Amino acid sequence: MRYQITGKQIDVGEALQTHVKTELSGILEKYAGRPTDANIVFSKSAHEYVCEATVHLSTGLTAQAKSHAVDIYAAFDGCGEKMDKQLRRYKRRLKDHHKERQDPVELFGASSYILAPEAEEHEAEPETLQPVIVAEMETKIPSLSVGEAVMQMELAGAPVLVFKNESKGGLNVVYRREDGNIGWVDPQT
What we know:
Blueprint: E1 2-7, H1 14-31, E2 35-45, E3 48-57, E4 62-69, H2 72-97, E5 106-115, E6 133-144, H3 146-156, E7 160-165, E8 171-176, E9 182-185
Parallel strand pairs: 1-2, 6-7
Antiparallel strand pairs: 2-3, 3-4, 5-6, 7-8, 8-9
Pfam family, one: Ribosomal_S30AE
Subcellular location: Cytoplasm
Domain Sigma 54 modulation/S30EA ribosomal protein C-terminal: 130-183
């Protein structure tokens, strides 16, 4: 497994890197069969340290966790606890469905755009009603079942996930509703 441990304007020493590798590998051995890589980023926000961890699993799913603490080791430990909880839930769901994915998740490319915020009301009307694109990036859209898509969305902590439905072949969307439930958009083909 490949670890990438970095700090944003923070020097991440050897002792912290060893601690992160030891603790994270222990968590991943318990729940994840074959993790491919882990990215851990430390940063500072006011008086607190922030630890953000992203682990890519061989099944194509991604687990993310984030934690804040006054001590940098405590920030990682909090992040590790969240990662442990997510992976434990993921493993339990796989067992509950009595289905293990034999093949990795199929991914296909798409474009992702970040749009500029709307102009202030007191500013003049824009010349065109087309939104201003701030950034254009390549992204991958996974081919999943609806249950796996909901699981991936929760593991990533994302409010929405676009995916290709394995059973119907069309693009679908799952999202977290304001009432806490999950919404699923399945357009007719």
